[in-house]
Write a structure and sequence with these properties.
Length: about 200
């Protein structure tokens, strides 16, 4: 593998994962289950606050965000690969110099993204209280049909932020896509819901 091929591979991986993360998050496009990446939801900066990585030896911002999170890694790969590919194919720099410049470009881009995310996390931590995370009583819409005794997905809005969560019917009955529901309880990451009309009729 040549240097240009290596840089191109890094760029493709970083860029492709960034696009998939965006499509699965900010654009609210529901990807097939096999395409849901470990960092799906990276668009929710607070969700990557690194609570499970808060041990010693890892770099964290004051808000708890790890330096080594999916978004900064993807940014580094994309910029490192892109700059490296351009230098390796359109300049006469020796490989070591090109590698150094590409690494610096990648680190700079990743640091910019990290600072932006850390700022969001600090603002969120300062404003969100424990009761802000409770979703019981929230009204939303079924986005992925719930089969009988099965699990689907619903979307709802909380403090101006659109969110999605796995959902099951409280009475075990199927609920088609588009049904307006209310969350009656939330356990083990699953929201148990009933039709909103049952509360209003």
């Amino acid at each position: 593998m040549t240097w240009s091929e290596f840089y191109l591979l890094c760029f493709i991986v970083g860029f492709a994962l960034s696009v998939l993360s965006f499509l699965g998050g900010a654009a609210h496009i529901h990807l097939p289950a096999r395409l849901h990446l470990p960092f799906h939801g990276a668009h929710h900066a607070h969700g990557m606050a690194g609570r499970g990585m808060a041990g010693r030896g890892t770099g964290h911002a004051r808000g708890g965000l790890s330096w080594f999170n999916a978004m900064t890694i993807m940014t580094f790969l994309a910029w490192f690969g892109g700059v490296g590919y351009i230098l390796s194919t359109h300049s006469r720099l020796v490989a070591l110099v090109a590698l150094t410049i590409a690494a610096i470009a990648g680190l700079f881009a990743a640091s910019v993204v990290f600072k932006f995310m850390a700022r969001i996390v600090r603002v969120t931590d300062a404003q969100m209280l424990d009761w802000d995370y409770r979703i019981e009583g929230t009204v939303g819409t079924i986005s992925s049909p719930i089969r009988g005794q099965g699990t689907g997905e619903m979307i709802f809005e909380q403090k101006g932020v659109r969110k999605s969560v796995g959902a099951r019917s409280e009475d075990g009955q199927p609920l088609p896509k588009g049904t307006e529901v209310a969350i009656t309880r939330y356990e083990d990451g699953i929201a148990y819901v009933k039709k909103w009309e049952e509360f209003t009729s």
